[in-house]
Every structure is written in structure tokens, then in C-alpha cells.
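Page 47, continued from p. 46.
Same chain as before, 108 aa.
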Amino acid sequence: MEIGDLRHRITFQKLVTTVNDSGFEDNVWEDYKTIWAALSNLHGREYYAAAAVQAENTVKFTIRYLPDIDTAMRISFRDKSYDIKAIDNIRYQNRFIEIKAQEVKAGG
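Result:
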């Protein structure tokens, strides 16, 4: 992985509960951290495995190691949202993380 490959800005979002003006609780996605990432579509075996479970809109983000992310978060990229499905600390070296995420359909 070349550092120059990390050329896309993505934002991690957390689901937080807030209280609206009427006193009711609302769940909203709040920006957590914006970082640089490499982006690629799935191909080969990964693509066919995703297609088997109707997850064709799955993409792979590669970022520098970030210890405090989890699958309860989502990623915002170019006006689209992606649910995090898997997080892989590549070779357990704490240098890069590979994230597989599925695009959230409109209204999701």
C-alpha cells in the first residue's frame, strides 16, 4: 500500500441518541472522524461471495490504522452511506485496516 493511494476523504459516523424540541428521542448519525482512504470494488472471489448474499454494492476501504472504529459505525463517502460489515487489521501490524462496507439504500 502506497500512501498516495489514500486519496479519498471518508467520514466515519456514529449513531447517537438526541432529544428533539418536542422532548422525544431521535437517533441520528453524527460525524465522528474524517480521514484519507483508498477505495476499491470487490473482485474475484470476494465479489462472488458478496453477490451470493445480495451484497453487490459492497466496497473495500483501506485506511491507516485507527483503533477506535467498529461495525456499529458507518462510512459517508460522496453523498452515499455505507454500513461497515467487516474490519481487518491487515496482518495484525497496526499499519493499515481494510474495511468491507455495503452501500445503504436510500431511506436506510
